């Protein structure tokens, strides 16, 4: 498979999607943020002084999805039709699993928007909690599912 973001001179370009058909598209991404047990407990109980960590991270993740084309140089600005962010608190592993689902109807997919959403949500959790836990770790940022376009429906298997 050739790289599609290079021109004849080997320099970066934005891919031309003019010829592509509009299709319904969906992307689901995940990230994890691992922390001290006390930090997770403070998030659950509302004990973080900066406010409701998950509510702020949810809004930040949605904003991140909407701003992806401003952050990633070769991403097309898209009309996003829906963004949802969910959090799963795993007390045994002392982590929060962040899942985003992004939808559009258009010529190109929303994988980057879904990945940006979970990344920004994780960074927001870090920012709001760093005063009590500087060594939190953001990990496992990945695409979980993709639907629409030429490749159809793809679902990550295994991890």
Summarize the structure.
This protein has 159 residues and is α+β, with helices and mostly antiparallel strands.
Topology:
Blueprint: E1 23-34, H1 37-45, H2 53-66, H3 68-71, E2 80-90, E3 95-106, H4 111-129, E4 137-147, E5 154-155
Antiparallel strand pairs: 1-3, 1-4, 2-3, 4-5
Keywords: Lyase, Molybdenum cofactor biosynthesis
Active site: 127
Pathway: Cofactor biosynthesis; molybdopterin biosynthesis
Descriptive tags:
159 residues; alpha+beta; Alpha-Beta Plaits; five-stranded antiparallel beta sheet; 4 helices; 30% strand
What is the third-level CATH name, the topology?
A: Alpha-Beta Plaits
Distance between the termini: 25 Å
Q: Total helix count?
A: 4
Query: Residue share in helices?
Result: 25-40%
| CATH superfamily heading | Molybdopterin cofactor biosynthesis C (MoaC) domain
CATH architecture: 2-Layer Sandwich
Q: Please report the first level of CATH classification, the CATH class.
A: Alpha Beta
Query: What's the order of the H and E elements?
Result: EHHHEEHEE
- Rg: 17 Å
Domains counted in the coordinates: how many?
Answer: 1
Which overall shape is indicated by the principal axes computed on the Cα atoms? elongated
Strands in their spatial order, largest beta sheet: 2-3-1-4-5
Biggest sheet architecture: 5 strands, antiparallel
**Averaged pLDDT, please?**
95
Strand content: 25-35%
Low-confidence stretches: none
Structural class label: alpha+beta
For the secondary structure, the number of strands is: 5
Keywords: Lyase, Molybdenum cofactor biosynthesis
Organism: Thermosyntropha lipolytica DSM 11003
Pfam family, one: MoaC
Family: Belongs to the MoaC family.
